[in-house]
Write a structure and sequence with these properties.
By secondary structure, the protein is mainly α. About 80% of the residues lie in helices and about 0% in strands. The protein has three helices and no strands. The chain is globular. The chain starts with a helix and ends with a helix.
């Protein structure tokens, strides 16, 4: 049973890392620090988009429209933290 808990916590940690990377990259792309014309940056960005969009889409459908601000990564991180606390 302890192994399953450790694996679940590892997967939650990986998901949190992906969300943080996606969040930071979105800001860097918005401020033109990163350029999507670079192949590596584009591959990482679109890979994270494809990976995280199924997580963000249901959250976005529940949250009210905030103009240009997307709060779905923050809500996803809070949900992962709640799940981590429940597992522990």
């Amino acid at each position: 049973m302890n192994d399953i808990v450790q694996i679940a916590l590892l997967l939650i940690g990986v998901a949190r890392t992906f969300i943080f990377i996606h969040f930071i990259m979105s800001w860097l792309i918005s401020f033109n620090v990163l350029n999507l014309q670079q192949p590596f940056v584009a591959q990482v960005w679109y890979g994270l988009q494809r990976l995280l969009e199924p997580v963000y889409r249901p959250i976005r459908s529940v949250l009210p429209d905030m103009g240009g601000i997307d709060l779905s990564p923050i809500v996803a991180l809070i949900g992962l933290e709640i799940l981590r606390i429940l597992i522990i």
